[in-house]
Amino acid sequence: MDILYFLKERTRLIRLYYAGADATFAQTLKSIRAGREPFVPRPEDAESGEPPFQSEYDDNVELLEVSGRVCLSMLAASLKLYFAAWKRDLCLALTKADVSTFKANGYVSGFRDLLAREVGIDWGTCPADLALVEQVVLARNREQHPEHITRLAVTHAEADIARHPRPFFMSEFEASLADPVTGEFWMQPSVHVPKEKLSDAITEVEKLCDWLEPLLLAALIRPRPS
Q1: Read out DSSP for 131-150?
Q2: Cβ pair 63, 26 in contact under 8 A
Q3: Of 13, 21, 135, 11, which is closest to residue 67 (Cα–Cα)?
Q4: Which branch of life, at top level (predicted)?
Q5: What is the pLDDT of residues 2-20, one digit of tens each?
Q6: Residues whose CB is less than 8 angstroms from the CB of residue 199 and which lie 6 or more positions away in sequence, other chains included
């Protein structure tokens, strides 16, 4: 099975999915700002005390945010499936220590340790931004395990900020709120996945898998000690 092919089919569809969402919600926002049909302001809107169609505007901003996080979750799942497929094909077994690493540090760290030990992967030569790749998974975990029913936005966990003090998936505005001396945040920043950052994340995951693929294929055909 061409595992890399199926990984890239998934990333291709993730790009298409987000492009469709972006076209829909971003266009609605533009129409509201411009006062185009069906968002032409009515005389009575001036009496409400807030901009016309504020509720519709807020909804579409929220939907764009949700779309970015959903796509990031799909990307994290795709990478996990890629690793799992190679684990199966290479007949790799997890030790108790591996299970502990997976549980404590996540599957990116777990598979890095496993492939380094069992296949001889030298992660020091990897061209992908592994810190960014790990943050894809951390952000996915926050999206899939929200803490508050009162809002759709999710924030970075304190433990995740300890590992990555300047989260990649964060708005420029919230980044500017960090203490200029300590770098600490006075409140946990939100997980923010705009088009550009989603594209960067997909690129790094693909770069990682492009680099791994020939190394894992070589390990697959390499004679094993009896």
Answers
A1: HHHHHHHHHHHHHHS-S-TT
A2: no
A3: 21
A4: Bacteria
A5: 999 999 999 999 999 999 9
A6: 15
